[in-house]
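Both lines are retained for reference:
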Amino acid sequence: MPASQPSGPSGHVTATAPADPSAAAAPGESVATESRTPLEVPDLDAGFRIKVRSLVGWFAPLMYEGISRSVDVGAMRGRGMASVVSYLDFRRGEDPAAVAAPLHTVVETRHSELSGEGLGHPTSRLGFDIRYAFATPLGTGDPRRYREQLSEEPRPCGEGRVVLTLVRPFGPAAERLVREPQPELAHLRLHVLKEAHPTVESLSETGPGFAEAVAGPVEVRGTYGLQHTDVNQFVFTGEYTAAMEDMATRLVAEAGMSAAGHRVNRVAAVFKAPFAAGDAYAVRGRLLRDGDRTVALVGIHSIGPNGPRLRPAVFGRVDGTC
């Protein structure tokens, strides 16, 4: 049912929620999983910080372990339901890590009402709110000692959030969103989001100190191929966020700042519609700056007969420092 199948770090995973819903006397607060896996060379940048795109690449297998061990995913699929990533937000830490050091991850999954209004409202829709906490021992930051750990104690090195929306992808348009509780989730308490599901507008908010750093939006066009897809038949989520990071780097360079000295600290995105292999796209970006802080606002637009469509299919922000 989750939008991405396991592909990434593997390790020992423990689900704290019961696999049999009937075993729970009262609804559980959440499903918690823990894992540990070694960091690899491509997971770290030249400064030995864990890449945001690495964090994004890990979220799917870690998420799937928790949900599949505690929810009858097959039964929900059999009734025409699936879950799609509708929002993500990943942030990395400042400290250097080490190759082969253990990455400790804690994932908490909550069954949630995503509009913030609760059940019974016209905007009500159900899904999962998933939080990630990453930790690893401190590394040296020295290229000659890239495997050396300064201690065995894991330190926070990143955090993330993914929102999955439950849908009926092949149902009537008026019934695509799942708005009513499902029996397979009865063992989990339904939480109402304190703030409504993020939107393009909420992600675009930056604060009064930010000003345009590049004159006019920058656009790059391309076509997705099979190398961008996963087994769910659509472009993998991490491809979109990687394109956003790449656009942020291009914008920083066009603004006359050092691309080599620019650090991406956060990527957040909302997802409206997927792309498939063969689909043409346009990436459009703006860069705002406040001192050494940057925010790139990036939309990925599908292309129709008359050019890129006005509203982006995927929209995100890339926060960095220079």
